Amino acid sequence: MNRGDESNEQWERLKPLLPPQKPKTGKPNHDRRQVVNGILWILRTGAPRRDLPERYGKWDGPFNREIYRQRNIVERAINRLKQKITGYTVHLVVPEVDSGPILIQAAVPVLPDDTPETLHARIQVQEHKIMVEAIRYATALPNPLAARQCQEK
């Protein structure tokens, strides 16, 4: 499981929303959990689907399948998994994914009537506010990574 993917508990709550898995034919079926995680990654990041990380399978898998457009599965999944808070984090980049020391974070509450678009717009407002502060902080350090690692010890 990758950071941002749904937990086993969340997956168990989502499975009943999905249509039955079709029997395997000549073309291999996409792993449902992998597809859902890919959809959630795109909704969470706002990145184009062509930028979908390889761990979620071929980039066109999550969105070219009619099965996920039927019955509002994506919207129902978002509502079922909806958390009370999300946010934005600025961290220093290191070789590991999402592992750099955190410079600054902003919390954004998830409102009951949020859509992916409204939530993303509110996250972007916080992103723009804290990015300037994060840049000031990072550029004030002689060696941001070394300084931050020393603070954490």
Automatic annotation (TrEMBL):
<dbReference type="Pfam" id="PF00551">
    <property type="entry name" value="Formyl_trans_N"/>
</dbReference>
<dbReference type="InterPro" id="IPR052909">
    <property type="entry name" value="Transposase_6_like"/>
</dbReference>
<dbReference type="InterPro" id="IPR036477">
    <property type="entry name" value="Formyl_transf_N_sf"/>
</dbReference>
<feature type="domain" description="Formyl transferase N-terminal">
    <location>
        <begin position="83"/>
        <end position="135"/>
    </location>
</feature>
<feature type="compositionally biased region" description="Basic and acidic residues">
    <location>
        <begin position="1"/>
        <end position="15"/>
    </location>
</feature>
<feature type="region of interest" description="Disordered">
    <location>
        <begin position="1"/>
        <end position="31"/>
    </location>
</feature>
<feature type="domain" description="Insertion element IS402-like">
    <location>
        <begin position="7"/>
        <end position="61"/>
    </location>
</feature>
<dbReference type="InterPro" id="IPR002376">
    <property type="entry name" value="Formyl_transf_N"/>
</dbReference>
<dbReference type="InterPro" id="IPR025161">
    <property type="entry name" value="IS402-like_dom"/>
</dbReference>
<dbReference type="Pfam" id="PF13340">
    <property type="entry name" value="DUF4096"/>
</dbReference>
<protein>
    <submittedName>
        <fullName>Transposase and inactivated derivatives-like protein</fullName>
    </submittedName>
</protein>
